[in-house]
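in:
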């Protein structure tokens, strides 16, 4: 396995995780719909619209260095229900266990990047540095969204150096795309927007979960973007206070924002670059 290591994450923390039959691993790049799919999976597992604990406690982020790994593993070990574990590590950096199902979420890269830009303003970097022990970085003047997005589409890097770069995003999805099968399920953010009921049924089917039809409407309502935003204190990934505002974590939840920012020639350059970074069938799925 590759090791993905940054100030925030360390994929080596997976070494201490003991898999069980039925485990669900939600593997995404940042701002691709991670929390949304975690919520869907926990609603399906528990069969109730009201979660008994905050989502981040029920479905921990195993790689995140802000909390001691021993505490996260102990919480997961104590859970008696079917477990849902969050990771931002690609599948080539975590154990692939036959007892688990891996749900990988894709989103149009430009939309992901716009959300990533705005998320940067909502992170309490001093608090993150305090929790991880990393030295706080000097704050730099922030470019406009347009300039930042253009640079993001053009940055030459690797998935190990910058997992949330365009290169990293397409590596994460390409790796999952080549593994799609009985144990790996791809979910598209746009499909959740267009047909949440249908996507939840598809996910339930792949996880082998049967839900009472009388309960189904309440579960779907609980997973809507607006409903989740209204419960941001319980659903945002912020158990240790790394977000400035939990409501801002659920900012807009729509598609098409990225393409609106770039000029036609910049969009053409983006399209040419991604053709060199990912297979055409994946790109067709991702950009529809």
């Amino acid at each position: 396995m590759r090791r993905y290591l940054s100030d925030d994450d360390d994929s080596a923390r997976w070494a201490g995780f003991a898999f069980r039959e039925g485990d669900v691993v939600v593997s995404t790049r940042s701002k691709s719909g991670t929390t949304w799919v975690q919520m869907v999976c926990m609603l399906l597992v528990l069969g109730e619209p009201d979660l008994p604990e905050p989502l981040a406690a029920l479905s921990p982020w195993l790689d995140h260095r802000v909390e001691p790994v021993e505490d996260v593993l102990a919480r997961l070990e104590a859970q008696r229900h079917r477990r849902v574990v969050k990771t931002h590590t690609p599948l080539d950096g975590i154990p692939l266990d036959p007892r688990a199902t891996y749900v990988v979420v894709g989103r149009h890269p430009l939309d992901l990047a716009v959300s990533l830009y705005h998320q940067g303003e909502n992170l309490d970097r001093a608090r993150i540095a305090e929790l991880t022990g990393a030295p706080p970085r000097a704050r730099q003047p922030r470019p406009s969204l347009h300039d930042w997005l253009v640079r993001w589409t053009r940055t030459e890097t690797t998935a190990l150096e910058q997992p949330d770069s365009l290169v990293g995003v397409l590596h994460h999805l390409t790796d999952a795309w080549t593994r799609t099968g009985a144990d790996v399920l791809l979910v598209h953010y746009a499909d959740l927007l267009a047909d949440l009921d249908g996507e939840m049924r598809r996910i339930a089917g792949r996880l082998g979960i049967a839900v009472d039809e009388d309960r189904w409407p309440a579960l779907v309502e609980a997973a809507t973007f607006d409903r989740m935003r209204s419960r941001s204190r319980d659903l945002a990934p912020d158990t240790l206070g790394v977000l400035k505002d939990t409501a801002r974590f659920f900012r807009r939840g729509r598609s098409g924002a990225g393409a609106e920012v770039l000029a036609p020639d910049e969009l053409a350059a983006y399209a040419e670059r991604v053709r060199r970074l990912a297979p055409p069938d994946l790109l067709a799925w991702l950009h529809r």
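note: DSSP finds 16 helices and four strands in the chain.
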